């Protein structure tokens, strides 16, 4: 009977140890599952950001082509046509835009003159 009690105590101790290990493993599993779900969400979010960044880079590369025209027209405006009337300014700016457009990829077509209210 003593041998059986001793074996029972050993088995109960082993059961207790294994139960504690199982509890720790279940907690680790739950935490790992949560981290995996969060990682998948992050990957999805970063994937859409990558697409947005790619679009932004493409847009900036297109705008870079017009940078020289933008600088030219801005410098020309501030240096040469500032003192003229709005009508004459617009005529000169339109002519310069057309010249830029005709002479290569340096045209900045989005440049506009301020209205009288903005001046």
Question: How is the topology of this model organized?
Answer:
Layout: H1 2-65, H2 67-81, H3 86-102
Helix pairs in contact: 2-3
What is the percentage of strand-forming residues? under 5%
Helix-strand category: mainly alpha
Separation, N- and C-terminal Cα atoms: 107 Å
Helical fraction equals: over 70%
Please tell me what the overall shape is: rod-shaped
Low-confidence stretches: none
Rounded to an integer in angstroms, the radius of gyration calculated over CA atoms is 37 Å
Number of helices: 3
Chain-averaged pLDDT? 82
- Number of strand segments: 0
The description of the largest β-sheet is: none
Reading the helices and strands in chain order gives HHH
Question: Can you walk through the features of this model?
Answer:
This protein is mainly α and 119 residues long. 81% of the residues lie in helices and 0% in strands. It is built from 3 helices and no strands. The chain has helices at residues 2-65, 67-81, 86-102. It is rod-shaped, with a radius of gyration of 37 Å. The N and C termini lie far apart (107 Å).
């Amino acid at each position: 009977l003593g041998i059986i009690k001793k074996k029972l105590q050993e088995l109960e101790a082993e059961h207790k140890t294994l139960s504690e290990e199982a509890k720790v493993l279940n907690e680790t599993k739950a935490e790992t599952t949560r981290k995996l779900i969060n990682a998948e969400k992050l990957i999805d979010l970063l994937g859409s950001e990558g697409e947005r960044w790619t679009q932004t880079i493409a847009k900036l590369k297109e705008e870079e082509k017009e940078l020289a025209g933008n600088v030219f027209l801005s410098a020309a405006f501030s240096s040469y046509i500032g003192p003229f009337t709005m009508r004459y300014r617009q005529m000169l700016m339109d002519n310069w835009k057309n010249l830029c457009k005709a002479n290569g990829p340096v045209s900045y077509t989005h440049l506009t003159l301020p209205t009288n209210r903005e001046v």
